[in-house]
Every structure is written in C-alpha cells, then in structure tokens.
Amino acid sequence: MRSILFFVNSFGKGGAERVCVNLGEEYVKQGYNVCFITLFENSSYIESNTKFNICNLKLDEKMSKLELIDSIFRAKKNINSFVKKNYGSDGYALISAHLPLSHICASLSIVKKECLYVQHTSLLQENRHRIGYDLFYKFKNNVCVSEGLKREMKEKMGIKKLECIYNPIDLQRIYELRQNSIGDISKPYILVVGRLIQTKRFDRAIKIFKKGEFYKKYDLYIIGEGELKSELIKLTNKFFRLQSMMG
C-alpha cells in the first residue's frame, strides 16, 4: 500500500487544514495509507478520527516563533522516525506541506526534496519581503493555490520554481448544501467568506463597502468564525446596521 503524507499546523478550522483533511479522507477512500504530521493539537479531531496515521508534535501555540522553530528542530528525530515507519515498500505517492511552520518541519525531514511546499496565503506584508522567505523557498517545489499568489512569488520574491494547483472542491457536498434555505434574500448582495482573523482583512471589506457606498445597491453578508468576530460586528454597527451571517 502506498502512503500519502501531509505536514500541516493542526486539525483546526483554517482553510489550509480543511483542504488537507478533505484530501486525506478522499485518499483513504482510494485505499491509501494517509499520514499527518501536525504541530499543534486539536484533540477532538485526533481522538475521534481513526482514518489517518497521525504524528502530533503537541507544540504550544502561545510560544514565540523562535521558540516554535527551536521546538521543531528538537522534534526532527521523531519526525523522521514517523516518516520512515510509514514509508512502506512502495514509498509515498504524495508528500505536501502547508503553511510556513509546517514548511520548516518538512524541510528538516528526510523527504524534504520530494515534498511540495503549498502556499495558501501571501508571504508579503506591505510589499516587503519577510526576511529569509525568498531564500527559503528559492529551490523548493512550490505550489500556489491561486494565480495571484504565483505571480506575487515570481515577481516580488524572485521565486521561479512554481506551479499553481487550485484547492479541491467537494461538488457533491455543495450540491447538497445549496438545497438548504438561508431565508428571504430579495436584494442583490456581496458575499465574503472566510476565517475571521487579522490576515483575512474583513475590516477592509466593511470599510470599502461603506466608503464606496455599495450599500445603496447591495447588502453585505459575511460568513465565518474567528477571534475577530465581535470586533467586526462592532465595526459594522459603527457605520450602519448590516445583516450579519457571522457564525
């Protein structure tokens, strides 16, 4: 039996994590031995799921980035032991790492050269390189989930080794969900979906909706959960009363 290996931060609610779990479940159906190396623990999923072989490093999310990187270095032996154990006679059919910390984890493993380093979000802030990112990814097998990310890494970071592969979509699940009623919506609307965290910049969507006076023709619906939920609700109430679908 061939194996599939994912390096991912956790089994949390983030989009990258959800993509990995969806892919993993599909690979299980196809008869693969699906393995995960995760950094942070999400106990409810780990305890209830028996489909995957999981190596959880149980790192503390409250640690600084330097402390986290140091802890990953210290876990190198355990990481490689797990990789070897699940290698099997037929090897890995696919190895991929998702999000920067998991990229570091994969880069320390014995399968670092075979690994695909998947970019789910921008690595730049205010058009400045994050120190060392351009060098770190220069010779790796980089995959971007959008053409925009690919263009950014190529033009602004000088990364040439790039491919674009879109996130998978469970069409059957979408067909099932679209039968559900979401209430009476008679006015044209703008829909924004995602995790309610700082990097997603939902605050900008609300401010642009106000400044551009889009509210005169449209409603704005925001669907998501996250740490900034209450802040974003306060922001909408500051400008006007918007119908909210946060949660």
From TrEMBL:
User: By its UniProt entry, which InterPro entries does this protein fall under?
Assistant: Glyco_trans_4-like_N, Glycosyltransferase_grp1
Q: Which UniProt keywords are given for this protein, alphabetically ordered?
A: Glycosyltransferase, Transferase
Which residues are in the Glycosyltransferase subfamily 4-like N-terminal domain?
14-173
Keyword Transcription regulation part of the UniProt annotation = no
Molecular-function annotations in GO:
glycosyltransferase activity
Gene3D superfamilies for this protein = Glycogen Phosphorylase B
* Protein origin, superkingdom: Bacteria
- Pfam families listed in its UniProt record: Glyco_transf_4
- Enzyme Commission code: 2.4.-.-
- What name goes with this protein? Glycosyltransferase
Organism this protein belongs to: Agathobacter rectalis
Q: What high-level taxonomic lineage is stated for the organism?
A: Bacteria, Bacillati, Bacillota, Clostridia, Lachnospirales
